[in-house]
Task: inverse folding
């Protein structure tokens, strides 16, 4: 039995059912007294007992919470109502509300037999009291039972559909909230990367130039020059602020780059990639790259390797990072199933990788053929203002 609070419509229907049963039992008792039936007072007592048992079950919280208590209540009603049937043929009128009660409280596998037994008892009571037998004697209780079964099962089907829609709406609302949170996080990360790029390309580069110019000025000044101490302090201040600006850039960089250099992030990516064995290699002497370059190379490596894992069915893959005099290159190669690159339109992943490369003036090429694996290569030209290339 469903213990959740009823909506107004089912609650009103329940009250109507209670009133119908009580009214039919009261009508049977009044007719027995008015017609001077031989067992009129016994009929009144049986009807009153049935009403009392019914009211006790309706007011009992246990019946609404426990299927076992509900079954016991129906058994008690099943003992009182047949006694009324045995005393008066008018008692069969109560069969119709009892159909609904049995179908509501019992599982379908038990409710349908209970309804059939109730209809049989109503027909048997009609025959027991010697009433005129007609097709309506059988059709009436059976038709009432069929209407009750169709109504209750139809309501339950509508209720299940309504619950399914409610759960779907809740899931959609939750998904929308998750998407909004993901978009917010993506916006935050994008803003962090933009700020890191701006700080690196403006403040950090400017402070680096100031530091170099002051160092050159310091070397040209005699040690006993009055301005030497001021130049030295200015150079130290520029150096300290340059270090602070670089710290801000590191803190604003993507989480994958926070724990080390680009090479370290790519090594972790290869080590944790599911599926094929991935090897990482470096060509040339590594040096520190601007943050936008590191972010672009890392994101393209992640996207290309994800495509390899999902689509290529490869056994081996290799990521190579190449440091050159005027450019930096990244190659992602696998021995997977490949595809017809000239005819392939490319999905969002390739478009996103190409957009990242274009944003830094680089080029992205994809070479593949069915059964011959795939090679993704990106080349980024280094900026002319790149500071001294210290090894990383």
Result:
């Amino acid at each position: 039995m469903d213990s959740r609070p009823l909506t107004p419509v089912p609650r009103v229907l329940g009250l109507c059912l209670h009133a119908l049963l009580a009214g039919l039992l009261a009508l049977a008792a009044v007719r027995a007294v008015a017609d001077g039936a031989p067992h009129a007072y016994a009929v009144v007592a049986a009807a009153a007992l049935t009403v009392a048992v019914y009211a006790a079950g309706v007011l009992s919280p246990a019946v609404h919470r426990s299927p076992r208590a509900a079954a016991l209540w129906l058994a008690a009603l099943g003992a009182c109502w047949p006694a009324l049937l045995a005393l008066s043929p008018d008692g069969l009128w109560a069969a119709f509300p009892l159909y609904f009660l049995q179908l509501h409280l019992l599982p379908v596998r038990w409710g349908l037999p209970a309804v059939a037994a109730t209809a049989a008892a109503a027909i048997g009571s009609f025959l027991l009291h010697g009433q005129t037998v007609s097709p309506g004697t059988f059709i009436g209780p059976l038709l009432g039972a069929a209407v009750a079964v169709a109504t209750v099962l139809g309501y339950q089907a509508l209720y299940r559909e309504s619950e399914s829609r409610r759960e779907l709406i809740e899931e959609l609302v939750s998904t929308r909230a998750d998407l909004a949170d993901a978009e917010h996080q993506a916006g935050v990360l994008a803003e962090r990367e933009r700020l890191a790029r701006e700080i690196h390309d403006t403040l950090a580069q400017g402070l680096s130039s100031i530091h170099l110019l002051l160092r050159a000025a310091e070397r040209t000044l005699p040690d006993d020059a009055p301005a030497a101490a001021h130049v030295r302090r200015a150079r130290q201040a520029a150096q300290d602020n340059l270090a602070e600006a670089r710290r801000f850039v590191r803190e604003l960089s993507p989480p994958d780059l926070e724990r080390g250099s680009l090479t370290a992030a790519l090594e972790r990516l290869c080590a944790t990639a599911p599926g094929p064995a991935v090897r990482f290699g470096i060509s040339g002497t590594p040096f520190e790259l601007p943050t936008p370059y590191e972010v672009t190379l890392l994101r393209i490596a992640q996207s290309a390797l994800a495509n390899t894992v999902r689509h290529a069915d490869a056994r081996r893959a290799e990521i190579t990072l190449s440091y050159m005099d005027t450019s930096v290159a990244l190659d992602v190669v696998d021995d997977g199933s490949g595809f017809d690159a000239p005819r392939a339109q490319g999905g969002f992943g390739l478009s996103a990788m190409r957009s990242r490369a274009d944003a830094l003036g680089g080029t992205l090429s994809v070479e593949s053929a069915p059964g011959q694996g795939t090679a993704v290569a990106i080349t980024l030209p280094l900026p002319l203002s790149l500071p001294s290339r210290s090894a990383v």
About this structure: Strands lie at 277-283, 316-323, 327-334, 363-368, 374-381.
